[in-house]
Amino acid sequence: MGQPEQRAEGAGPFTTRRLWHRPEGGTVVWESRPARRRGVLSVRGPGDTVAGSARADDEALGRLRRLNAVASAAFVVGGGLFALGAAVAQFGSGEAVVSASVYFAGGLFFNLGGYTSLLQVLNAPRHSPGGARLVTAGWRWWAYEPMRLDWLSAFVLFAGTLVFGVNLLDSFLQGLTTQQLNRLVWTPDVVGCVLFLVSGHLAFAEVCHRPRPCLRSRSLGWWVVAVNQLGSVLFMVSALAAFTRPATGSLINSGIANWGTLCGALCFSAGGVLQAFERP
Fold first, then answer.
1. Are residues 169 and 250 in the same domain?
2. What are φ and ψ of residue 244, in 5° steps?
3. pTM
4. Are the CB atoms for 51 and 67 separated by under 8 Å?
5. Structural domain of 221
6. H or E element in which residue 7 lies
């Protein structure tokens, strides 16, 4: 007979933590992010002391390590290229096509990182019905699981990278009017920033097990989410400053737009470095 479930916790309709009593005493705790990123369950003894952990099988852990390495490297490189593109725009020759090309290359790495993050969710080990161990299903390239908070966060992030791709492609267009610039370049930029912010908020809800953000300075996963969310905020500041005034045909503030992108991109690179250590 499986271990009876003690309770489920999470944000709204989403479950991000489950606890089971052990017949011999103590409690098995499944948390969404540690199970997905590290492939482990924690085991608590009497008095809520940490008594040990249970992990997924070696094949599953190897899969998690490879996916995590690809995702973290993609965000490090993508963030670095975005920062370079912003630096070229701010300090370079002023040729828009040069910075646009660097941005586009960085966007491809963001696409890769976003999709790999979704693959991490789809192919992570799941808890068994009794809660005592983690089990791994076959490899999947896609699945629709909107009632899983981790899936929803990763999917919205990936969608944001695709919308940014539209923005980056449109930035190569020449001879656009002010209205066309705002519709084809600025609007996808803002939509992508909103999706990044929503994804970050959902990631906070997964880590904190509640709708509101929390402070968990001892959690590496919390730091990954917090640094990336700061990057999303800076991207949004940059996007708002990049609106083209219809009356003058100039940006609201090109300096803020460039510096916001540069600093936000560095945050995503730093988040990628931190994520490299959040592995099995």
1. yes
2. -90, 120
3. 0.89
4. no
5. 58-277
6. strand 5-9
